[in-house]
Design goal:
single chain, mainly beta, four-stranded antiparallel sheet, globular, 331 residues
């Protein structure tokens, strides 16, 4: 079901598409391909953070539920060489690095609604050549589909010139409805995370998680010492894209979410930075620190400047493909 729920300042219509198969109810916005809510059909409490109206999503601090890119995560120095040409991107992080593709990330673009069914929606957006410094006209297709208690997200990209393409979803999960996620446990199937500098730019080295607070290989409580673990790191679940496989499991209360993906990295972010001022949002803020955990499958951050990492270069006549499944269970 498609319903118009708002409008951008430039006059573009914002549609809300509801997917419902009698098990899960999911609301997707044409603005940013945003996952606004995911709930069981007999329980309207959402298992992801979201706003009840479209207005807060026009700025959306924290990128709640949005698709982000062209390049998810960070590019150090806001520069990279693509096809032999040094490109300069929008330095929207600390005025010197690029985060999630720049200020005009994919999450604030209005997608065309290509097709809807009761259990699926196909969205499409085009990012023009030179946008935020990236070359090539890039077309992104996003398909969300329900299958039982699974929400599958398929992302496809095509370009007319060599460019970077690394898109991910930025939903924050809170499976219990608690104020903070200290009652959650998480498992991530990774022995290593990327070592980073003070600006969270990868150094190129790997950091073994054994005997550290970052070790999530066995179900680990996100609450630690009366606080929530402060994590904002790329977990190396593989070194290149693979077939779809399970990489993480999140549990709280009676709910479990298993995340399967094709991507090499999984950015785990426990939401310390949530709480930015947002007058149009409930209580005037974009939620509060540690209200949800973002699990972002993607290429490794700063891979364009780290030749030892798998590369996110997309060329004409190639198709970028990213598949992630959010598999829910309860009991």
């Amino acid at each position: 079901m498609k319903t118009t729920i708002g409008q951008t300042p430039t006059g573009h219509t914002i549609d809300q598409i509801t997917l419902d198969n009698g098990i899960l109810n999911v609301k997707i916005l044409s603005l940013g391909g945003i996952i606004q809510s995911i709930s069981w059909c007999d329980d309207n409490r959402s298992m992801v953070l979201g706003y009840p109206t479209s207005e807060p999503y026009l700025t959306n601090p924290g990128k709640l539920g949005a698709l982000v890119g062209r390049y998810a995560n960070r590019i150090g120095g806001a520069t990279a060489e693509i096809n032999g040409v040094v490109c300069h991107f929008d330095p929207n992080s600390k005025n010197k690095h690029t985060l999630h593709g720049g200020r005009e990330t994919l999450g604030i673009h209005v997608f065309d609604v290509v097709e809807t069914t009761p259990i699926s929606v196909h969205l499409r957006a085009m990012m023009p050549d030179g946008h935020m410094g990236f070359p090539g006209n890039l077309t992104i297709d996003a398909v969300y589909a329900l299958d039982g208690s699974t929400l599958r997200m398929t992302l496809l990209g095509e370009t007319d010139a060599a460019t970077l393409c690394n898109i991910t979803g930025h939903s924050y999960f809170n499976l219990s409805g608690s104020r903070v996620i200290d009652d959650h446990t998480i498992t991530v199937h990774a022995d290593q995370i990327l070592a980073t500098d003070d600006d969270q730019i990868p150094t190129g080295d790997y950091f073994n998680v054994a005997n550290t607070d970052f070790d999530l290989r066995n179900a680990a409580a996100l609450g630690l010492g009366g606080q929530v673990r402060d994590i904002d790191h790329n977990y190396c679940v593989s070194h290149a894209q693979t077939d779809l496989r399970v990489v993480a499991v999140l549990r709280a209360a009676t709910n479990t979410m298993t995340l399967a993906t094709t991507e090499a990295g999984l950015q785990v972010y426990t939401g310390k930075g949530l709480g930015a001022p947002l007058p149009s949002a409930p209580m005037g803020t974009a939620f509060h620190p540690f209200a949800g955990v973002a699990l972002e499958p993607q290429f490794y951050p700063d891979s364009p400047n780290k030749p030892q990492f798998a590369q996110a270069v997309l060329r004409p006549n190639e198709t970028y493909q990213h598949i992630t499944e959010y598999r829910f269970a309860r009991g």
